[in-house]
Amino acid sequence: MQKQDSYDYYVGIDCAQNKHDFAMKNNQDKFLIKKGHFSNTLQGYEKFLNTVLSKCPNKDKILFGMEVTGIYGTNLYERLKSDGYHVVMIFPDSVKNYRDYKRLNKTDKIDSACIAELLLNGDAQIVHVEKNGYTDLKAYIRRRNALKVTCTQETNRFLAKVCLYFPDLLKVFPSGRATLKAIFSIYPTPYSIIEADFDELVSVLQKASKNKFGVDKANELIHAARKSIVVRKSISDGELYNIHSLIDSIDFLESEIRNLEKIIDSKAEEFPTYHVLLTLTGCGKITAATIVAEIGDISRFHKASQIVSLAGLYGDNSKSGSSVNKRGKISKKGSRYLRHAIYMVAEFARRNNPIFKAYFTKKKNGDRTKHILAVNAVANKLCKVIYSLMKNQSTYIIQYRDLAKLSESTQNEFFQNAETDFSAKTRRKKYLYEDEYGELHEFVFKSIKKTLIE
């Protein structure tokens, strides 16, 4: 943020749940109010404004600033905006760095004074507040991510019960959790399987697996039950309740996640940049929607390095003279949601996209200790590709001239894994390749290596 000469007064606000502290400075670097505070109510807000306006009646000459810290400042920000005041949100790191530079303690009053000084000096890092549909899309995605975490936790608790009471089920059903849940809810111990009516067991299997399993799987299940080390014949009513409760919880969460993903896909369709990102190798619908929501309006960025910073993917290096030269980890100071989404694409790209695979191999240089460093490098490079695609509204194409720079073995591996003759009804994701004659070809990957795509 550059120094704003159009303002004569600067008000820094440190927000909390019940009360807000504020400080006010003029353009002569003099504190008019150093230790003010007001309650987080309409009455407190009006009292605060009366105090500020008593120092400067012209609201167009006042700039308000507050930290982006949780939800406590949101209502105040929106109220000031709706009343026609000039207000900005500031990155917390700006305040922390300035406070450390001045060697000040961490208190609400000191923070409000630091914010006022940062506004006056023009050193504050301003947060862009989206006003379009990006906010809605972001809310849906973050709720979906939260439900995914909860669903994973509940699933792990359920699997712990299976391991305790009937561990052999996990060998019989290594995949297909729907069938596993159905069987375990009715037959929670090996003894209950052995004593079960065979026709009824087959019926449960067929219904749960949609006729994928039948008599053969029932016989396999009975054989596994007879070989099991578990000796208990039944479990308590309390534990049985916990099992059924976990299954109901997992089913509900999975249903909510599916509904949210439909909404996310529908909302993301409104943004042209979403369709552009879907052409990128390894970028699925949820990942593309996350990148669009977290970046927002691409026109506010002027270079790719700003995307790198937003994702917190830039290196936090430490270097001093010739005796100390330590490469730090990535900063992780940006959006963790954006960073995770880009990592998902990077993990896919480094395995399947020949361009990124060669770049990853070069950065790793055969050293296992540099694996994370190499993945970070791919993610960093992807930020530049994402910026270019979104900025220019262009399609991602693997081009022959880029492939020609790679080793012959890498080229051969790509052409062996890229299939151009595929069914029009294929559910595999399609990509574009431009040959040496400038002709475009659609292709799908024959095999995906450790896919992390969403």
TrEMBL record:
The keyword Coiled coil applies. Residues 243-270 form a coiled coil. Residues 11-167 form the Transposase IS110-like N-terminal domain. One of its GO terms (biological process) is DNA transposition. The keyword Coiled coil applies. Keywords: Coiled coil. Residues 275-360 form the Transposase IS116/IS110/IS902 C-terminal domain. InterPro entries: Transp_IS110-like_N, Transpos_IS110, Transposase_20. Signal peptide: none annotated. One of its GO terms (molecular function) is DNA binding. NCBIfam families: transpos_IS110 (NF033542). This is IS110 family transposase. It comes from Holdemanella biformis.
